[in-house]
Amino acid sequence: MTTTPLSPSLITTLAGRYYTDPEIFRREQEQIFERLWCCAVRSADLAKPGAFRTVQIGRESVLITRNRAGGLRAFLNICRHRGAQLCTEESGEVRRTLQCPYHAWTYDLEGRLVAAPNLQRMPDIDRTERGLVPVPLREWLGYAWVCLADDPPSFEDSVIGAATERLGDPAAIEHYRTEGLALGKRVRYDVRANWKLIVENFMECYHCATIHPELTDVLPEFADGFAAQYYVGHGAEFAEEAAGFTVDGSAGFDRLPGIDDAQDRRYYAITVRPQVFVNLVPDHVIVHRMFPMAPDRTVVECDWLYLPEVVDSGADLSRSAELFHRVNSQDFAACERTQPAMSSRAYRHGGVLVPSEHHIGAFHRWVTDLLAGG
Predict the structure, then answer these.
(1) d(CA 143, CA 348)
(2) What is the pLDDT of residue 233?
(3) Is 326 part of any domain?
(4) Angstrom distance (rounded) from CA 230 to CA 166
(5) Each residue of 152-186: pLDDT tens digit?
(6) What is the pTM of this model?
(7) Residue 69 is part of a domain; what is its CATH number?
C-alpha cells in the first residue's frame, strides 16, 4: 500500500503495531508503568489494620496493607523464600501477619519476617533483610499511589502537578476534598482494547456528538468536539436547562462544601498519566484507574464519590452515576471496535488526527520518548 502526503489539517498517529505488539507492550510495562507513579487503591477500602488488597502494576503484583499503627504500606506480593505469591486473593483481612501458603514463611504488617518453619535453627538470618520488598507509597485524593522505580520521580511534579497544571490553580482540586468523600458506586470494566486507545479516547471529544447523546445534552459545548480538558482552567458549563450532572439532567445533590461559584455547574476532566482520569462536578467526583493486562486488554476501575452523608442516607444515586456509566460503556465499546483494526494493513502506518485531536500527538510523543529512554 502507498501513502499520500498529509494535508496541513492532519497529523499522523502511532502505527498500528503500537497497539498489538507484545514486545512494545512489555517495554511499556517496564518503561512506563513500572517507573511512574500509579494509582493503586482507594485508601478507605483498607479500613482496618490487617486489611489488604493486591493490584497489578506493570508486570508486578503489589500488596497494599494497613499496619497496626493505621498507616498504609506497599510491598511486592512475593515471598522471599521461593518466590510464591504471598496473597492469592484480590482483597482480604488478616489479624496480625501475612503467611505464605507454600512454606508458611510469615511476615508482619511492616513486611518483616517473623516466623518460618525451623527459623530458630537459622539464627544467622536477618529477619529485616529477608522481609518483603517494600514499594514506595504516597496518599493523595484519598487514594494510595505506588511506584516501582528504584528512584521514583517527584510525586509533586508528576502527579499533583498534572492536576494543578490542568486547573490553573494549585488549590483548585483541593476544593473537592476528595479524601473525605465516600464511595457511592464502583464499576469494574474489562475492556478488550489497548490502554492507549482508552487514553486517546478520553483526551478528545471529536466523538462526543456521535456516541454520547446524554453527555452532550448536559454539556452542549462537547457536541462541537471541544477538548475542554486541554484548556487550562476551563470547565465545560452545564446546559441552561440541566439542573445537575445526571443522565436526564435532573437535579443531583447539594454541591460539595469547598466548591465556589466559579466551579459550580461546571465539569472538569483531568488526565494524570499514565493511568488515571479524574472527573470533577459540583456534587461528586469520578475517578478512573486503568490497569493494562495485555496488548489488547485493559481493566478499568471507576469510582463515584459523594459526601458521606449522601451515601449514608441511602439516597438514590442511580441518575447521577448512570450518566458516566453510559459514557464509559459507549467509550469502551468504541475502543473495542477500534482494537481489531490496529492489526489491519490499512493501519500499518497509523491513522490521522484532525485539528481538534492534535493534542493527542503530544501523548504519542510522550509514549515514544519514554520507550526510547529505556
Answers:
(1) 39
(2) 77
(3) yes
(4) 7
(5) 999 999 999 988 888 888 788 999 999 999 999 99
(6) 0.94
(7) 2.102.10.10
